[in-house]
From TrEMBL:
Its EC number is 2.6.1.42. Pathway: Amino-acid biosynthesis; L-leucine biosynthesis; L-leucine from 3-methyl-2-oxobutanoate: step 4/4; Amino-acid biosynthesis; L-valine biosynthesis; L-valine from pyruvate: step 4/4; Amino-acid biosynthesis; L-isoleucine biosynthesis; L-isoleucine from 2-oxobutanoate: step 4/4. It is an enzyme of class 2 (transferase). This is Branched-chain-amino-acid aminotransferase. It catalyses: L-valine + 2-oxoglutarate = 3-methyl-2-oxobutanoate + L-glutamate; L-isoleucine + 2-oxoglutarate = (S)-3-methyl-2-oxopentanoate + L-glutamate; L-leucine + 2-oxoglutarate = 4-methyl-2-oxopentanoate + L-glutamate.
Length: 364
């Protein structure tokens, strides 16, 4: 990575045409996920002489020339984090610097420019302050923030783009599970892998998701919700879901998550749970776990709970693992450890518990 780039200077142009209050109230009453966006966005442009035109401005479509590089070669990365409104009305985000640091690593892998972490955090602060009225309140609602960066140069040659756009948009999000936490069913993909050694699995690039979609489709066809991917070499080691990391709870009370191998995404939720579970006295191991250990462990009673984790769905119990010719069931109800970890994380995020690790960042 190059020497730290200078921080961006943001200018502000507020919208003269905000979404009418009644419409916004309607959206906030039933936000869903990823379909409604706030009044503003942040954009900035990079060229080889540095970042410029950093701006908070009215939310609007981007005009893209058909030869814009990202449309052809997918040089694109993104992040995802949430702003939470507390009962006292204040607004906080969870570990935004960790997302900024991960975006730096993603950018380095995808030959995209370095965006200073402080500028990443400032972009989020500007957007959330301008659109504070869009942060829902109550239950497990939040304002989902989507920073992303892509090759915006108009050029069909294959090389790292010399013009790049950074953008942050925001979308009110409802509780992921409208009717309480429901265990999800997982399909074990045998035809497809998500990430290979030396590939892009450890970074949040758009192409990882594109490549996971047919496996996801296969999961749906088999009556499942999500896909579990194995390692690409031995097809033996459990890696993660298409967009969530995995945790296993053992009968002896220890908790295991697959160790980071370079092809597993370094989830901030995953990382936070390692700390939170240890705080609560659990023994947490990061090690390889084979698909046979999962199947046999559930059958023998050694593995009592399995859950997935990520920003969008927080902590999600896994009820069933199915594959071509078989399945094991972890149970139709969320397990006690899953529920405890889930509550512990949400309590920090919504300010109901002490923030012992300094994870929360106040914005408004
Ligand atoms: C984003 C993502 C996760 C979860 O990361 P968080 O930082 O916890 O939201 C897990 N796996 C993949 C593949 C992801 O893209």
């Amino acid at each position: 990575m190059t020497a730290t780039a200078p921080a961006l200077e943001f200018s502000t142009t507020l919208t003269s045409n905000p979404v009418p209050v009644e419409r916004r109230s309607q959206v906030l009453a039933n936000p869903g996920f990823g379909t409604n966006f706030t009044d503003h966005m942040v954009t900035a442009t990079w060229t080889p002489d540095g970042w410029h035109d950093a701006e908070l401005r009215p939310y609007a479509p981007l005009a893209l020339d058909p030869a814009t590089a990202v449309l052809h070669y997918a040089q694109a990365i993104f992040e995802g984090l949430k702003a939470y409104r507390r009962d006292d009305g204040s607004i906080w985000v969870f570990r935004p610097r960790a997302n900024g640091e991960r975006m730096l690593r993603s950018a380095a892998r995808m030959a995209l420019p370095e965006l200073p972490v402080e500028s990443f955090v400032e972009a989020i602060e500007l957007l959330v302050r301008a659109d504070a009225d869009w942060v829902p309140s109550g239950g497990e609602t939040s304002l989902y923030l989507r920073p992303f960066m892509f090759a915006s140069e108009v050029f069909l040659g294959v090389r790292p783009a010399k013009q790049v756009t950074f953008c942050v948009i925001a979308s009110p999000a409802g509780a992921y599970f409208a009717s309480g936490v429901q265990p999800v069913d997982i399909w074990l993909s045998s035809d497809y892998t998500r990430a290979a050694p030396g590939g892009t699995g450890a970074v949040k690039c758009a192409g990882n998701y594109a490549a996971s979609l047919v496996a996801q489709q296969e999961a749906i066809e088999h009556g499942c919700d999500q896909v579990c991917f194995l390692d690409a070499v031995e097809r033996k080691w459990v890696e993660e879901l298409g967009g969530m990391n995995l945790y296993f709870v053992h009968a002896n009370g220890s908790i295991v998550t697959p160790e980071l191998t370079g092809s597993i995404l370094e989830g901030i939720t995953r990382d936070s749970i390692i700390t939170l579970a240890a705080d609560r006295g659990y023994k947490v191991d990061e090690r390889r776990i084979s698909i046979d250990e999962w199947r046999d462990g559930v059958a023998s009673g050694d593995i009592t709970e399995v859950f997935a984790c990520g920003t969008a769905a927080v902590v999600t119990p896994i009820g069933r693992l199915a594959w071509e010719g078989g399945e094991v069931s972890m149970g139709a109800e969320p397990g006690p450890v899953t529920q405890e970890i889930r509550a512990a994380l949400l309590d920090v995020q919504y300010g109901r518990a002490d923030d012992a690790h300094g994870w929360m960042h106040r914005i408004a």
